[in-house]
Each structure stands twice: as C-alpha cells, then as structure tokens.
Amino acid sequence: MNQTLDGNKNVFWHYYFNLKSRLPLLFLLGLTIFLISSPFVKAQSHKRNNFKSTNANARDTINVKELGAKGDGISNDYKALKKATEIVNDKGSGIILFPPGNYYLANYNDSLHPALDLKFKNCSNVTVIGRKATINLNGRFNRSSASKHRKGFSFSDKNQIIPFYFVQCKNVFISGIEIDGNVDKMTRDKGVVEKGQGLITVMGCDSVKIENVFLHHSPSDGIYIGAGGNKLSRRVTIIRVRSFNNARQGLSITGLRDAHIYKCNFSYTGITQGDYGFHRPTAGVDIEPHKLYDSIKTGNIYFEKDTFTNNLGGQFLCTQPKLTSNITINDCTFRGIDSFSRYQVILAADSVILENSELKLGRGNVFPTWKATPGSNVRIINCVIESSLNGILSSSSDDRDSVFIMNNTFKFIGSTMTTYFPYLQTKNLVFLSNQVYIPSSAIKIKRYTSLVQHAILSKGNKFYSDQISIKPKVAYDKTRQVAD
Q1: What is the pLDDT of residues 5-25, one digit of tens each?
Q2: Distances (CA, A) of 118 to 84, 115, 165, 194, 456
Q3: Residue range of the domain that includes 430
C-alpha cells in the first residue's frame, strides 16, 4: 500500500516538475491562442502591420536648406522643394528634412505661369520630416472662371499647387509639418468649383503613415486619399493630425482599404475666415468612394478617439453601402452645435459600428440609413446622443437596411418638440435597453413624442422626463414585439 502510494507520489511529482518547467511556454502558448482568437485583436490586426519603417539611411537625407530654401517666410522656396522632390523621384526613395522655418511657396498654377504639384510617383521608402517647420502656400490670388459646365458651375485655370502628392508609392512617412493653404487670403468668381486636392494627397499608395501634422485653410481638403492606377490606397495610419478650417473637407476618402485614424481632430470645415467661402459638403470626414476597385470596397477603416467639431455640413458622412464596408467609430467626440446641417452623422455603409462615443449634434441627427442608397448594416452601442431635432432618424422601408441600437442615452435639448425624438421607422430595426430623456417643458400633452414603428423589437427602453406626471408617449405602430 505504501509502496503504491509512494509510486503514485513519484509519478505525480514527475509530471508536476515536467509541467512546472513548461509553464512559461504553456502560458505564452495560451496567451497567443487567446490573442489570435480575440475579436478585438482581429478587428485591429491591420493597425499593427500597416506601416513598415523606411530603409533609407542618413546619406539619403535631403535638407531643403542645402538646396537653397531660406525658410524665412518671405523668399520663394518652391524651386528648392521641387528639386528635393525630383531627387527622391530619381532615386526612388529618400528622406526630406525641413529644419525649423517658414517655407513660402509663391508659385500657383495658372494658364500663363503653370506650376507643377510636388508629386512623388512610384517611389518606395519616402520620409518627410519637419522640425518646427511650416509650409505656407500662396493664397493671394483670385480663382477666376475659365470654363463653364452645362450645369452652371465653372472651372478655374488658377489653382493652388499640392505640396505633397503621392501616387502609387510604398512606405511613406510624414511627420512634424504644418501646412497653411491660406484660403482666407484667396477669392474666387461666383460658381467656381474646387480642384480635387488635399494639402496631402495620397493616390493608390501602400503603407502610409501621417502623424503630428497640422493642416489648415486649404481651398479644398486637408487630406485626400483615393485610388491610383485603378488600385485602392492600402494600410494607412493617421495619428494626431489636426485638419482645421478647410474649404471642402477635413479628410476625404474615395478609395482606401485598411486604415487606422487615431486621436485626430477634424474641425471647422467650411469656416475659412475670409471671402473665399466654402465648397460642399463641408464635412469633417467624408467617405465617398467612386466605384469598386478589383471588386473590393473601400473600408476596413477604424476611427478611434477622434474629435469632430462644428464642421458646417456635417461631422461624418458616409452614404454608399454598395461601395463601402467595415467602418468602426470608437470612443470619438462629435460637436455639431454650431453646424447648419441636420445631416451631422451619416452611417450608410455595409457593416458600421458607432460605439462608446459622445455626440452633441445641435440641430442635427444621426442617420444610420440613407434612402437613396439602401444596404446599410449599422450598430450603435453605448453612445450619448444630444439633439434638438430627432437625435437619430432612420426611416428606410427597404429590407436591405438593418439597424441595431442598444444601451444608448438620448437627450432632447430643444425648447419645443416639432417632430419625433427619436424617429425610428425601419423594418429590420432592434431598439434595445436605451434611455430616452425629454424635458417636461418640451412635451405637448396628448401628442406622441417618440416613434418606434415597423421595427422587429423594442425592449427594455426607458422613456422619461424630469416630472413623473409628464411622460413621453411612444408610437409603436407595426412593431412586432414591444416590451418597454
């Protein structure tokens, strides 16, 4: 008996010490399996691999002052910057360094004195580094009407140059630069439209990182990202970028797959602070793909901890479900209190998540569906939404639209209700465990305050005011299951 027990003890300690010696390895193996299977890591996997460090070394560095740039804010540094661009294009790679200074580019493009954009094409490993450096574009000219379109708008033969224009490049890194488009000093003839451009323009590029950059007062966009050579731009990271007071958009996306936009600020689009005015849609971010590229949708784009403030035409616009998929907006802040548009946030895409965000929308709404382009699949979770209009408006009757709204807080901030808060009238809609607050002063007795119609389910929601005796009244016509 003792021998058997001792034998069992020996076997036990044998396996114990063998297991103990392998614990670190087993722990790492278990951790790896957990991370691989984690939905969060899967959703973020593109963020780890979307940029490779450049292989360029110190001898590839091009100091723009060594090419003749003064950086004094007065001298025209266009030729020096154009030379730096040519050197990189000839080599196919390189590092451009901007020492501290204010680099003025006097040239702009017109029919009499054409000036080329500073374009990098088919390059690999391009780095642009600024050390307290500002690039000032010439805005002291009028964009006169040169040709008319049959719809009544005009094109100009006078356009600002694009200071950083990347076409079909790989491994691009831009950091530490301020670019002032000086649209506040520019004017234009009536009806003249924008030139499609951004202060930074990326077309058909792979592995691009833009960080710690300040872009403002562009006559068009702060950043424009699209396709080039019939291929989407891919693997783009934008970190701590501020894009302010641009005439058309803070960020335009027309062809992009796999991106992470982190801690950026897109604000005051359309408020150009001069006589130039603005170009619609004047959004903070506009995802507006033109078509599919190799049957691939624009998408897999993750917005995290970003801020959108008082962009005149809306904070975030996406209206093409057939061309856009997999958009996530997490822990972002929206302030549309002074915006004139009721279309503050449009989320019409195939698979969109808006979560953990605060939205103060003034007279505007969130639109999870877009009647003109059905096919939205949208989830809105754990958000605070304040509005003096509907808060959220989903009125699609198309079976291809699907909306899931859960654990949100809706606050009506107007003085008098003129419509429903919220306004939900979508067939494939679930409204679950939300809180809807309407002040008693805004409630008109014997009138419905809220609309949840034609939905699949409305359950666990609380509709309340500041007075127990005055409660919001909800219309549930044709909603299949109600348990509020």
Answers
A1: 334 333 333 333 343 344 344
A2: 9, 9, 6, 19, 54
A3: 313-484
How many alpha carbons lie under 13 Å from residue 108 in its C-beta half-sphere? 21
**pLDDT score at 111:** 82
Whole-angstrom Cα distance, residue 26 to residue 74?
64
Q: Are residues 214 and 115 in the same domain?
A: yes
Q: What is the pLDDT of residues 265-310, one digit of tens each?
A: 999 999 999 999 999 999 999 999 989 998 999 999 999 999 999 9
Give percent of the chain above pLDDT 90. Answer: 81
How many distinct structural domains can be found in the chain?
2
Same domain, 380 and 232: no
The answer to whether residue 25 sits within a structural domain is no
Classify residue 43: in a domain, yes or no: no
Residues 303 and 337 in one domain: no
* Domain match, 192 and 332 both: no
* Same-domain check for residues 283 and 329: no
Domain shared by 299 and 161, yes or no: yes
CATH of the domain at 199: 2.160.20.10
Q: Same structural domain for residues 258 and 351? A: no
Tokens of 226: 């699209």
Phi, then psi, of 7 in degrees rounded to 5? -60, -40
Which has the higher per-residue pLDDT, 479 or 5? 479
Considering the domain boundaries, does residue 434 fall inside one?
yes
> Residue 152 has what pLDDT?
82
135/254 same-domain check: yes
What is the three-state SS of the chain? CHHHHHHHHHHHHHHHHHHHHHHHHHHHHHHHHHHHHCHHHHHHHHHHCCCCCCCCCHHHEEEHHHHCCCCEEEEECHHHHHHHHHHHHHHCCEEEEECCEEEEECCCECCCCCCCCCEEECCEEEEEEEEEEEEEECCCCEECEEEECCCCCEEECCECCCCEEEECCEEEEEEEEEEECCHHHCEECCCECCCCCEEEEEECCEEEEEECCEEECCCCEEEEEECECCECEEEEEEECCEEECCCCEEEEECCEEEEEEECCEEECCCCCCCCCCCCCCCEEEEECCCCCECCECEEEEEEECCEEECCCCEEEEEECCCCEEEEEEECCEEECCCCCCCEEEECECEEEEEECCEEECCCCEEECCCCCCCCCEEEEECCEEEECCCEEEECCCCCCCEEEEECCEEEECCCCCCCCCCEECCCEEEEECCEEECCHHHCCCCCCCEEECCCCEEECCEEECCCCCCCCCEECCCCCCEEC
